[in-house]
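Chapter review: from sequence to fold.
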Amino acid sequence: MGVAPGLRPLRDPVEAGASRATPERMRASLPLAAWLGAALLALALFASFLALAWSTGDLVEFLASERRWWEHRDARLVVLITIAVAYLPLAHRAVARGAQRNLAALRDALDWGPEGFDAALERAPRASRRASSLAGALGILCVPLTAMLVDRDLGLYFRHGYWGAAQVWEFAIGSALGWSLARLAYAITLDGRRFSALASGLHEVDLLDTGGLAPFARQGLLAALPGLILLSFLAFNLGDRGWLWATGVLGSPALAWTLVSVRLPMRGLHARLRRAKAAELAQVNAAIRGDAAALEQTAIAQRAREVGLSDLIAYRTLVEGVPEWPLERALRARLVLYVALPLGSWLGGALVERLLEATLG
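The token string follows.
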């Protein structure tokens, strides 16, 4: 089966042909064992942190505090980072399996010419361990960068008493989070480039039936979701000093990259659709001007003798209305919902913080 290098083949041909985000499909993509594994990983990490905090005496001091745990910035960060680290294996698996399904759907639904789908996939970009490792290293660098953006005091990290269990955990597990997240971003970008390159292998684009092109758009939506979910986690700390600034500096380019990753799998297809529309319209316009032979190169060649001037004008309007991006209305609505996740979380988090200050202040 023609799947991208580094992606495992699908076990079930029926699963390969699935094209809608049904609950059954989601369970097949991420079975209960995967969710259970993530939950166990989170519990193991929490237990490790509690053991570290108990051994240093920080846990006893924390429990003696009159403040509730969510009022402590470091406590919230420990919880959020730990959950994010446990979530990322699920995200990696969902992205890989989603790409498999979309590739399988494209292979079965479209005309790949005499060379076939496998030849087109072979020409697509391949994974590079060096590039993936470099991305991971850059992800680790985001941890001290975030700390500096929040605290804006380099000397703070050299003061006596700063380094406690929570701080060690934030930097250590945060580094693991940055490594894994950056490698996931690299994998998503690589898959997007593969799908974009695949469009050049299409034998032809049927402007009258673009339903088979939907996997390109679904791949874009698949690429967006992990980053938007992780960005929404930042909302829980927006009320803390410095986090609004850090969110703006790091969250804005991350959100921009997420939106670019939506477009990337469809970029090559967009170019093919534009060229196909331009060629079709040129032939129809020539036929309107009186060149009857021009219709032989169009999608309505078999009806060339039956159409009149009014039919040609109507057909031109139809072709002009063919979208140049394979985003159906339902997929566009889903994209808007995805983008609303971090935006709604940020606004909601800031609003809750202000309401608590007004109520308790």
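Two observations follow directly from the output. Residues 1-28, 348-361 have pLDDT under 50 and may be disordered. Residues 32-360 form one domain.
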